[in-house]
Amino acid sequence: MNLVKTISSNMYVELAKRNLKRHTVRTILAAIGIIIGVIAISSMGILGNSLKLSVAGSLGDVGNEIVVYPSYGESVITEKQVDELYKVGDIEYIIPILSNVAKAEYKSESIFTNVYGLEKDGLYQLVELEEGYFLRSGSKDCVIGANLAENLDLKLGSRLTVKDSQFRVVGILKESGFGLALNPDGATFITPEAYKKLYEDVDDGYNLVIVKVKDLDYVETVAGSIEERLNKKEDVVTVLVTGSILKSIDDIFNSISLFLIGIGSISLLVAGVSILNVMLMSTMERTKEIGIMKAVGASRKEILKMFMMEALIIGVAASLIGGVLSFGGGFVVNILILKEASYLFAPSSIMYIVAGVTFGIVTSLAGGMYPAWKASNMRPLDALRYE
Hints:
Blueprint: H1 2-22, H2 24-59, E1 65-70, H3 79-85, E2 91-106, E3 109-117, H4 120-126, E4 129-132, E5 141-144, H5 146-152, E6 159-162, E7 165-173, E8 187-190, H6 192-198, E9 208-213, H7 219-230, E10 237-241, H8 242-285, H9 287-295, H10 300-338, H11 347-376, H12 380-385
Parallel strand pairs: 3-8, 5-7
Antiparallel strand pairs: 1-9, 1-10, 2-3, 2-6, 2-9, 4-7, 5-8, 6-7
């Protein structure tokens, strides 16, 4: 019995393959539609996922940080308020930061830069050096971001003019990407003493404070303790938990990925219509053949199986080809937009290729369903009379 079923199954596979070969050009055109659709869906999904991974990679190490800003109507965070922060438990370190914007000049070039004033220990916690060394306490030196160094062609030992004061470049940072609290790539870091001389007219106090929590599980608890301790009578500070911001960013990029996949799926729907057309034409051309098969004992189920097998063969072959080519499409998209191809091999990116292949196969089967049903429901006598 099993042998009979196996022979029967193989027969319908061979019949399906023969029928597809009869109209090679038509079959290839239908397959190309599926291939393009799978590439479009997978590549768009990979792009959205790569954008998310890129941002998460830039911000992922700040998940246990809390940023404290002055509330609306407040100009700075005072020393007294910073002292209160040290009384909160489960904190690894606290970094008070002075911040402003100024024009940076070197030779004949100029550019606006974020100027940050903070101690060497705080700078060490927040950024990584590419070359040089960190600031020494009380020095008239500066550490600069990678983009600022590139834009002004600065080297170690260069004299950078910021707001009519000159600073010697003693360190250049590694490129780190966008930050939630700081934007180090285009920034100039100086000591608090140098900052206060540069901005003598500003209020005493800090523009923001970065709080690093010892354990990710305690972030919300620590944020609540800071709120209770500093905002007793009125809101004088705003407390931002970077982890919640990261989650919001993740949700946004998930939506972007779905939108991009939606755009790519349009081409697959077109491919599904193409397969529907191919299978309908095949059904009409083979009406007499179907009548003969039914006359000699072929059942509706067997006719249905033969036509669905044709759609399945087109779908599987084209979808697998599209899945393989999606690696190339994802690579090109990542290189052109992100200048980075490593995200292509992330498990989450591979899943978009699997999803594209699956969607391609399902679309092919859906496109072949109506023609298969129509063929299986033909009356043998009408089919044999058909010319």
